[in-house]
Amino acid sequence: MGAETFVIFAKTTRMSSYKEIKRVTTHTLQEMKNRGEKITMLTAYDFSLAKIVDGAGIDAILVGDSASNVMAGHETTLPITLDQMIYHAASVVRGVSRALVVVDLPFGSYQGNSSEALRSVIRIMKEAGAHAIKMEGGREIRESVERVLSSGVPVMGHLGLTPQSIYKFGTYVVRAKEEQEAARLIEDAQILEDCGCFAIVLEKIPAKLAKKVAQSVQIPIIGIGAGPDIDGQILVLHDLLGINQEFNPRFLRRYANIHQVMTEAIQHYVRDVKEGDFPSEKESY
After folding, report:
1. Are β-strands 39-43 and 132-134 bridged in parallel, bridged antiparallel, or unpaired?
2. Which residues in the chain belong to E strands, given as ranges?
3. By three-state DSSP, how is residue 203 classified?
4. What is the dihedral of CA 155, 160, 165, 171, to 10 degrees?
5. Of 37, 203, 275, 281, which one is the catalytic site residue?
6. Most exposed: 29, 66, 149, 173, by fewest CB within 10 Å?
7. Please, what is the average pLDDT of the chain?
8. Given a cut of 70, is residue 183 above it in pLDDT?
């Protein structure tokens, strides 16, 4: 078995035979870009939803520091800790058989110096079983990126709107609309590629600029609010499913209204219990 193939075996539920499943790797994503096949990526933060997302055929899963907002109710991504990210990542990894699992390094775990970054990454890889990590920033974190990559851990970059820097930006508006910032972003993408990053997320930048970035580097460019002319797309799972109703950015397409489905189901349960209809005789021992 080749080092880049990573074949795992999943036992079927009704027989003792084994089904071959090819694990998605960083090499897989590069091959997808090379042949023009779009890359799909979603967030996940727990075992149950990660198992569903993986089973649905997603290529990559991001255990995002957006768990700070989605799972814990914080206003920003800044409060989530390294320990909390490891907990979420380990839960996701246990539910995944195929997808590449990328984990965000949380705020404060890598910006200080490269040694701190490496310590954080080692904990994530050893304690959570992650396949890769993601870091926000360009030239300003180059030393940390290079140090992590030198340890053999794959790194995904993140440019454009970087939520960990929200207090620096002061707003969640589209980034790199001005020529100077756009030029810097292109340069940062090239720096991350030169360092050895296997992919870059571009968040909330003009579509024309995102296309230019995707054409200027050889590694996959995955967008969120960055238009269609790039190598792949990522969304927050809870936004896509309509569990979260408060977040309505222009780039979001809701594929379901799970909030309504869950609300109606719970209301039905409450009514049945109040009226003595649940549990029935058949549902009792």
Report:
1. unpaired
2. 7-11, 18-22, 39-43, 60-63, 100-104, 132-134, 155-160, 199-203, 221-224, 232-235
3. strand
4. -160
5. 203
6. 173
7. 92
8. yes
User: How many Cβ atoms are within 10 Å of 114's Cβ, its own excluded?
Assistant: 17
Domain count for the chain: 1
Q: Is position 203 annotated as part of the catalytic site? A: yes
How long a stretch of residues is the chain? 285
CATH number of the structural domain spanning residue 100: 3.20.20.60
129-163 tens-digit pLDDT: 999 999 999 999 999 999 999 999 999 999 999 98
154 to each of 26, 96, 99, 251, how far by Cα in Å? 8, 18, 15, 28
Domain carrying residue 104? 25-240
pTM (two decimals) = 0.91
Longest dimension (CA), the chain: 71
Q: What is the pLDDT of residue 20?
A: 60
* Residue 152 falls inside a structural domain: yes
Residue pair 129/137 in contact by the 8 Å Cβ criterion = no
Is position 120 within any domain?
yes
